[in-house]
Amino acid sequence: MAVTRDELKTRIGQALGETKADLVIKNTRFLNVVTGETAAGDIALCGDRIVGTYESYDGVEEIDGSGLTVVPGFIDTHVHCESTCVTPMEFDRCVLPRGTTTAICDPHEICNVLGEKGLRYFLDCAEGTVLDLRVQLSSCVPATELETSGARLEAADLLRHKDHPKVLGLAEFMNFPGVFHKVDGVLDKLAAFDGRHIDGHAPLLSGRELNAYLSCGIRNCHETTSAPEAMEKLRKGMQVLIRDGSVSKDVHALAPVIQPETSPFLGFCTDDRNPLDIAEEGHMDHLIRSAIRLGAPLAHVYRAATWSAARGFGLFDRGLIAPGQRADLVLLDDLEDCVVNRVIRNGRVVTPETFAGRPAVSPVGLRSVKLQPVTAEDFVVPARGSVQSVIGVLPGKIITAHLRLEVPARDGKLVADPDRDILKICVFARHGTNQNVGRGFASGFHLREGALASSVGHDSHNICVVGASDEDMAIAVNRLIELQGGFVAVRNGQVVGELALPLAGLMSLEPFETVERHLRSLRASVKGMGCPLAEPFLQLAFLPLPVIPHLKITDRGLVDVDTFALVEA
User: Fold this and answer.
1) What span, in angstroms and rounded, lies between the C-alpha atoms of 247 and 274?
2) Contacts with 238 (C-beta within 8 Å, 6 or more apart), sequence order
3) pLDDT single digits (tens) 47-62
C-alpha cells in the first residue's frame, strides 16, 4: 500500500524529535549488519517503519532495552509450510515468536496434490498471516514425468497469479534435466518469468551444466551440501541458501563458507522442518545459533539471515536496522546464542493476542487419498535375479546411495531381510488417476519388524510404505486411507502410532502444539521398533523424490536419478 503525504509528515516529525515516536526501544544495543558493529542508542518506530537510530528519542510507548541486543527480523528464504505438518496460519503462530518475520514459501507440495486450488489456498492464507508470508509459484507440478501427481500446472496457469501482491516469482526449478534437454514446457515457464525472481534447485550441478542452468535467469540454490559446491556456485553469481531442516542439515558443511566476502550472497532456509524440531531446537534462530557455534563470523551470520536474504529476493525494505526500513525486529537476551526475548513485527510487539482476529481460511483437499484398500498380495515382488538395486538411506540427507545388494527369495518372490537391514519399500498412486504400484528395497531404516507408511511423499505425495512384513505394510497403508493421510507405524499387526494429516494428506487441522505432541509419541514408537533415524517419516518422505540423486522410487518403479530413467531392479 502506497504511503500518503500525511504519513510521511508524521514520520519526518517523529524522526526529527518534534513529536514523540509511536514506539521507542530505549537504552539498548543493536547489531548493524552493514558495518558489523554493535551500537548503542534508541530505536524509534513510527507505525511499521524505523524512523530513528543512533540518537535519543521519546516514545508514546517505550520498551526498556537494557541488557538486550536488537537485530533485524529473520528471513526464511525457502520453506514448504506443508512440511511443518500444520496449516500456514499455524506455521505463522509457531515461527513468528521465534524471530522469523518473513518467510518465502513454495506451496509445491499442495499444488502437486490439488493444483491451482492448493495454490489459491496458500495465497489466501498469506494475505492473513501476521508474518510476511511470500509465495513463489510452483514451477514443477509435476516435478517429473517419472511419477503420478494429482495435478499439472503449466506456464499459463502460473501466469494467472504472477501479479498477486504476495507473489515474488517462480519457485524452485527442480527439473534441471528438462532445461538441458530444452523441453518446450520447461522453457515456457522460464520464459514467462524472465526478469522476475526464479528460485533454483541444483544439487551437485557444476561446470557447463551449471552455466546453462544459470543462463536461464535462475538465481539461487538451497540444495548445496559441500563447501566446494557452494564456492563454485558463488563464483558464478548464484546465491547459496544454507539449509537446515528436519532431514537435510547443511549448516555444518557450509558454515566455513560464511565469510565477509561471501555473506552478501548467502541466506538461510529451513526447507522442511516439523513442529517437534522447531520446539526442541528452534527455527531460523537455530540455524543462526548453529552457524555461530561452528565458528562462522557472528555479524556475517546475522547479515546472511537478514539483509542478504532480503536483497537476494528484491525485498529492499527490510533486513537492516536503519531509518526507512520496515520495523521487523528481534530483541535478543544473548546475541551469540540467538536467544529470543521478544519480537516486533510491523512496529508491533508480538504477543499471543497478536494472532487473534486473523481471517479464517477454509481447509481444502479433505478427501484427497483416493487409493482403494490394499492386501499383502499387492506388495509381492517376483524374483528376477538375486542382486538388486537397493536405495541406501543416508541419515540427515535426502541424497541416497544406489546400492547393489543380494536380496533373498522365497517361493519365487523377493522378500525383506531385516537381519541385513534390507526392507521392502512400495509407492502406491493415490490420486485416483491410475493404480500404479512401485516396488523395491531400501536399506538404512534398521526396522527389525513392522512398517512405516506416509502420505507425504515428495513431490507427488503418493503413499510410501517401508517395512519388514507385507502384512504390516498393508495394515499401515489401509490405516492411512482411513485417516485420509498422515503417518502410521505398525508393529505385529497393530497400529502403534499415527498422526492424521487430512488437509491434502499433508497438513493437520490441529494446533502446532498438538502436532508436536503426536510427533513426539510417534517418534518414540518408531524408535522402539529399532529405527535409529532422527526423523524416520521425513526420511521416508524423500525417497520418492526423483530429482535428488542417486536412487529413488515412485509409483512407476525405481528411478536412477543420474540417468533420469526407470531401472529394472
Assistant:
1) 10
2) 200, 202, 210, 214, 218, 219, 220, 221
3) 999 999 999 999 999 9
The answer to whether 17 and 57 have CB atoms below 8 angstroms apart is: yes
DSSP-H helix ranges across 33-146 = 88-95, 108-114, 116-126
- Return the ∠ at Cα 69 (arms to 65 and 75), rounded to 5°: 120
Between the two ends of the chain, the Cα-to-Cα distance in Å is 57
Between CA 231 and CA 474 the distance in angstroms is 46
Q: Pairing mode, if any, of strands 486-491 and 451-454?
A: antiparallel
Tell me: the pLDDT tens digits for 300-329? 999 999 999 999 999 999 999 999 999 999
> Distance (Å, rounded) from C-alpha 171 to C-alpha 104?
9
pLDDT of residue 436: 97
CB 271 within 8 A of CB 245: yes
Where the chain has pLDDT below 70, the residues are 1, 569
**Span 5-25, pLDDT tens digits:** 999 999 999 999 999 999 999
Cell of 257: 563458507
In three-state form (DSSP H/G/I as H, E/B as E, the rest C), the secondary structure along 192-238 is: HCCCCEEEECCCCCCHHHHHHHHCCCCCEECCCCCHHHHHHHHHCCC
